[in-house]
């Protein structure tokens, strides 16, 4: 397993080793329906309970899990559902992740927004009522340098109350620079926590270093970020093992950084430009619902974010039983919020739910839920 490249900062591997050891030894066949029922009665679950909820024995009890997850969510979040929208500012990428439309070998229209382009997009999104933004780039330091991203953070933080970034993993020093420029949330997807599978899927670029990516959230917290987000991309490897790894990674980091706000995302594979056959295979909506419930019950205080990769129907149900944060008004290409077609670049994957902010807010209200734009104040 390639853990780091020579220029990459290293932390201790304690959490990484604990997650990989647990993943290797987990035997999901070992759990019974009774183990699942015991877990569903608890207010605080241990790791064994979490594994029981991810096991095959839990599948027939999915409805019970959904009721328990709903109660847990309402205990910590009430009726609140947080809204945000992503903004892609560059689709250049130096990595070769075989499942992603931005990968360096995929023949797509590449684009990167300059200051004017970024401001136009920010103002278009802000005028739709959003107060939380997640800013994304492909992973290409040669194009999207640290200074470029930091400047984009500064522009965004002048217009949004809450700003997260999803960019290539940075050093502590560079995360601190993003924080100084107004970002206080960092999302990094490990994609799969199976090191062998990871090596088969990530063929070129800095992303080949499994350990450096794994420790990105910890570096972000050391740099002063308020919160961090985790995720596996379901469909790449065995979903039970990946969900277990995500939950354990998040909980161990929470124990070490008790003030950190933790989020988990639950993306599944989607078709990309030039490869319409990519699918999440055995992770159907039923399995995705099981994963969401297991996360919600194991880490009841964590945000669970569901993207527009999922269908309208699934999203409308998921906000009732486990999900606490959703995106809306999503454009996955570059410059797509404005009407300047010339500067546009292609998107990362196909979305499924194309509703805008107003439509999402209306749906939430119709279901007795409360759309929340932002409840954070950036203090620097
Ligand atoms: S997943 Fe990220 S790093 Fe990989 S090709 Fe896509 S944008 Fe680049």
Structural write-up:
This protein is α/β, with parallel strands linked by helices. 39% of the residues lie in helices and 12% in strands. An eight-stranded parallel barrel has the order 1-2-3-4-5-6-7-8, surrounded by seven helices. β7, α13 and β8 form a beta-alpha-beta unit. α3 runs antiparallel to α12, α5 packs parallel to α6 and α6 runs parallel beside α7. It binds iron/sulfur cluster.
Sum this structure up briefly.
By secondary structure, the chain is of the alpha/beta class. It has an 8-stranded parallel barrel with strand order 1-2-3-4-5-6-7-8, surrounded by 7 helices. Helix 1 packs antiparallel against helix 11.
Secondary structure elements and their pairing?
Layout: H1 14-25, H2 33-41, H3 47-54, H4 62-77, E1 80-90, H5 115-127, E2 132-137, H6 146-157, E3 162-166, H7 172-180, E4 185-187, H8 195-201, H9 210-214, H10 216-222, E5 227-231, H11 239-256, E6 261-265, H12 285-298, E7 303-306, H13 312-321, E8 325-327, H14 357-366, E9 370-372
Parallel strand pairs: 1-2, 1-8, 1-9, 2-3, 3-4, 4-5, 5-6, 6-7, 7-8
Helix pairs in contact: 1-11, 2-3, 3-11, 3-12, 4-12, 5-6, 6-7
The structure holds iron/sulfur cluster (SF4).
